[in-house]
Amino acid sequence: MDVSDLLTSAGINIAICVVLLSLYSILRKQPGNACVYFTRRLVSEPVRGTGDISCFERFVPSTGWIAKAWQATDEEILAVGGVDAVAFMRLVVFSIRVFIIAAVICLFIVLPVNYYGQDMQHKEIHSESLEVFTIGNVKEDSKWLWVHCLALYLISCSACVLLYSEYKSITKMRLAHITGSPPNPSHFTVLVRGVLGPRIIHTKDAERMYRMLKSIDPRFLDRSLPYCIPGGAAHPFMVPNLRADSVSSTTSMDRLQSSQRRKECPAAFVFFRTRYAALVAAQVLQSSNPMLWVTELAPEPHDVYWSNLSIPYKQVWLRKITTLIASVVFMFLFLLPVTFVQGLTQLEHLDQLSRRVPFLKGILKQEFIHRVVTGYLPSVILMLFLYAVPPTMMLFSAMEGNISRSQRKRSACIKVLYFTIWNVFFVNVLSGSIIRQLTVFSSFKDAPTQLARAVPTQATFFTTYVLSSGWASLSCEIMQPFPLICNFFRKFILRTKVEPSSCALTFPHHTEIPRLLLFVHIGFTCSIMAPLILPFLLVFFFLAFLIYRNQILNVYVRKYESGGEFWPIVHNSAIFSLLLTQVIALGVFGIKRSPVASGFIIPLILLTLLFNEYCRQRFSPVFKRRPAQILIEMDQQDEQLGRKEEIHNQIRSAYFQNPIISHQVSINSNLPLSRNTSHHQGDEDNLHGLKSLKPFRYI
Amino acid sequence: MDVSDLLTSAGINIAICVVLLSLYSILRKQPGNACVYFTRRLVSEPVRGTGDISCFERFVPSTGWIAKAWQATDEEILAVGGVDAVAFMRLVVFSIRVFIIAAVICLFIVLPVNYYGQDMQHKEIHSESLEVFTIGNVKEDSKWLWVHCLALYLISCSACVLLYSEYKSITKMRLAHITGSPPNPSHFTVLVRGVLGPRIIHTKDAERMYRMLKSIDPRFLDRSLPYCIPGGAAHPFMVPNLRADSVSSTTSMDRLQSSQRRKECPAAFVFFRTRYAALVAAQVLQSSNPMLWVTELAPEPHDVYWSNLSIPYKQVWLRKITTLIASVVFMFLFLLPVTFVQGLTQLEHLDQLSRRVPFLKGILKQEFIHRVVTGYLPSVILMLFLYAVPPTMMLFSAMEGNISRSQRKRSACIKVLYFTIWNVFFVNVLSGSIIRQLTVFSSFKDAPTQLARAVPTQATFFTTYVLSSGWASLSCEIMQPFPLICNFFRKFILRTKVEPSSCALTFPHHTEIPRLLLFVHIGFTCSIMAPLILPFLLVFFFLAFLIYRNQILNVYVRKYESGGEFWPIVHNSAIFSLLLTQVIALGVFGIKRSPVASGFIIPLILLTLLFNEYCRQRFSPVFKRRPAQILIEMDQQDEQLGRKEEIHNQIRSAYFQNPIISHQVSINSNLPLSRNTSHHQGDEDNLHGLKSLKPFRYI
């Protein structure tokens, strides 16, 4: 592939992007598509005029949305999308910053060294092969390799400084989110799993649990919460049996007896008077059998993944292992289409193809078609296959037994990330059959050399991948083709009225974070090897900045929030990419016989590892546990402002799976439970309705 | 090496053992050696007659000690040595049980299959090569390999069942130890690290810390504890400056001002009114900066490793990484002597040696000497080198920043374990230079095959290793040569009076556990490959049973207790050995071309992994954290019995590094602090005396 091939590919992709974005700017102005492109606005501000756009304006492409996305402040994003959205945008900003630095260093310093690396007659620039711009063009034993080494040092240092400041600011943001948010029921609630069944609860264990929770501080446990235990004992436990089939009119006594057969009931929510009491109950090992009375802080009410609460805690570890194995198997079986795609980029395969299927011969001979097939088609096929991955991983994560939606998404995010980096990066780099790849990775010693040989030669593929898959996926993201078609289908064929809240989606972190991180990974590993990729990558990230801001402001709703809990994934992934870049550089300098440069890389690797360990010690605990200090301050504030009663009334009604049942319980327990008015999740739970209501019990 | 060589070696070792044990039985009857062989008894029962042993009896070997060690009950061991000692003896009992089962299976079923594995003329039994008894003698494609497969299944299953029951009973014992022990100051105390200095404490952070701790429950925090903060504010903090140079007569005000320069003071003990309050304070993340106000449950007063408390918490992670790297480097550099030892067992090296050093030729020609050199000398050299390892690892663990002696010992135990298994097992199996070994381990795919080739051929070495190193180390353990010589030196040359408490040693878990686990490892891996090792191993474990019981009853004192916290190490190590055995079997069946047997091993490996994961979920949390349930019950009992005040008086005086200072503080703070009468650690802290007293402060 030469420079003009690359420019053709870039041209095609720029044209496609411009067309799609223009199409978007027209489609979004149609009032009928408002529930696709302005879902969030419709949900949060239900009464909204479409404005007085004239008929002519409606069909002319405009750039107003770009200006709006650009001008939005971080505060706006925070108000609209929460900490998760801001943290996601920080990832984009981090990428832009680090690759601007990398591009300046590599294009102005490394690229000339690569280009003039050999004593050769250079062709005209447009017919120059792309290989000339890679480190592969630097001759062995060259004195100029210290430039690459220095560039890698500069890139690593700036990446670490940026990563540190991002981690710090997101930690601060997370803490501010915990402190600043209105009283959150999840702060006061503990989810207990592995609860022993009612038969035992009523006699000995109830006493024990009562004492256990009481001893935290009797004042903290919310005595005013509904309770009903047969026999007249008045413990602060609430054990109504919320079985779907017994909701109608049986009394709580009847229902309790009918369920006494079961020995272990899966889970229960316990409410506390203060945040600190809940935190303590959640973090202490309660029982001497660690599989019983397992406590953790409850997720936000809308974040609870109800159907998984019915999984007995004893199964969870087995499920985790099973899904892990399943994901790994899936990861390796996926190699088959990827191997095929890889074959297409190699010319000899194309020749074979045209020999076997003679009528293709004429078509493939044409210069343009040939360029499309080698430069564009493989990425498209790969991209189409990759679309099936996130739903699969989401399914695995649901089977794993995660009890909250954000946890499920985070788990899926990690799986998709591993999957993408393995199947897009490593498989393409090592380009071969499953067996050959396993052979390469079974000998760790040769891995740097193998990678060092492969990465510069595969840089062309990655450049086209950024152009096609990267840019196209962003256009696809803003176009929202699937909701658009669904909307069209419902409106003009089914002719049903669509509620905006029913088709509102939450931000798909599990697909977008791995995508961005993959490009960060490609960017780092290719930076000093093949710097020509960096401008295209920068365009990708600028586009991503505008498009994701637009989507957060207009499309995705915020139903629950994890408070930036996915940031450690981003941080670790970036560090991994940096380390891999350094290892590959080590291999390259080895191949180029530059022991001095190799020697300088080893301290860089050690320093990066140390930096990562420091960040792990300094920041990551805050993402796993809430610090007591700020919760105590919040509790005290509440007390000073006299908001306690109000908060407790709120908590009572927060954790109900279904408004009908919440109402039913409020009648049965003879307590003035306020009816749950919150809207429910848009996906599967709502579809199942009452049916999905597994036997579930509150203490 | 043939059978008669092995018998010669066994004969030599039995003779040495008998001689040493007889010598021991004589030495222990000499009144002058009482402080070597009855240290524990002398410390706990200071007035003790030596009995009326006649002069004749004193110089005749006897077996009385064996009977006493055998008859001691588990309750006695528990009373004398605590849970740690019982758990250690359980390791020996577990080994005996599992290897009795393995010996029965392997000697009666596997050994005949190995012996008649090839169609060959067998020689007389005593001149038969030992190789004939290993799996190497079974011909390829043999139909009898399912016997080995079945034997491995039986051994794995019985090992897992035994491991499960041991883990369960030790967990129970640990819980009973926590519940049953007299009120322990460490249950009420939290060690806070990364405390901000006095300047800040006095203004804002003191308030915050006060609120933080108060909010647990104001009743729980021990208000009656000494406090002194300038300015008249009466917080429940105690900030006397315990600098060695300012102890004499300055007032607390003066001392405080002089130390206001420092910004972070390393650590502080905080006392609570109940165990549960301390537990909560220890397990919750206190500050939003996870490097500050780090809390953990305090170790027992005698367990505190005072000199490490002065290490700022910020350094700890860096120290851990540094010592890890140092240990790994040490592990690999140690290969040099081991490689030399390995060379000696190979005959051609001996021939070379005798050619270079001609006068050795005559000696080496002699049959007996030759046997000694090949069968005995290598193990002795290896053993001598290995003696230097535990002190080195102990040093590393001290540098790591562990704040308690038990933690330091556990950390050293893990390091020594890795070290021994790598340097004794793997290096001998893979027998070669450093580079060759790294090559083997850099290709993971071939590792099972490599190991499968090497282990059966190295079985001879391991058999002699068990005979020489194993048996001799036990004799050495009971003889206590080093204290014996020291005692002799002090008594007859220095002529000083020796206090028994000053030379009292705690049980050296960090050397004895890795030793036993190494033999467990060798036993498992050799069991179905070379079953002839098992009888010798059983003798070793029987001997260990008697000797360690004797030592626990008579020699080692119990200064502190970890409550069996090292058991997870034992469990994990046993599981690792089982898994490695299975992987080697996989390789062997692969070499022998028995795909069916190989196929059956894979589910066994998976099941073993699942079993381990289950145990990790079910038991290990109890070894890391104390369950709230039992602590709460204990608190309630104390309240019912009215022991609270008494306990609090005890705690006040428990955590003082030095009796003089404890006295000083009690005067300065005008509180009736009881003088600390407990005796102090026998090792380095005591030697440093006041000098080692680093700046240290109590809140």
From TrEMBL, chains A, B:
Q: Which GO terms describe its cellular component?
A: plasma membrane
Keyword Membrane found: yes
Limits of the CSC1/OSCA1-like 7TM region domain: 319-589
Which residue ranges traverse the bilayer? 6-27, 98-117, 144-164, 321-341, 376-396, 416-435, 518-548, 569-591, 597-615
Using the record's annotation, list all stretches that form the CSC1/OSCA1-like cytosolic domain.
252-308
Q: Which residues form the CSC1/OSCA1-like N-terminal transmembrane domain?
A: 6-166
**Where does the UniProt annotation locate this protein?**
Membrane
Q: How does it sit in the membrane?
A: Multi-pass membrane protein
Q: Does the keyword Protein biosynthesis apply?
A: no
What are the protein's UniProt keywords?
Calcium, Ion channel, Ion transport, Membrane, Transmembrane, Transmembrane helix, Transport
Q: Name one Pfam family in it.
A: RSN1_7TM
Extract the GO molecular function terms from the UniProt entry: calcium-activated cation channel activity
Its domain of life? Answer: Eukaryota
Family, per the entry?
A: Belongs to the CSC1 (TC 1.A.17) family.
Task: List, alphabetically, the PANTHER family matched.
Answer: CSC1-LIKE PROTEIN RXW8, PROBABLE MEMBRANE PROTEIN DUF221-RELATED
Output this protein's name: CSC1-like protein RXW8
> What organism, scientifically named, is this protein from?
Gossypium anomalum
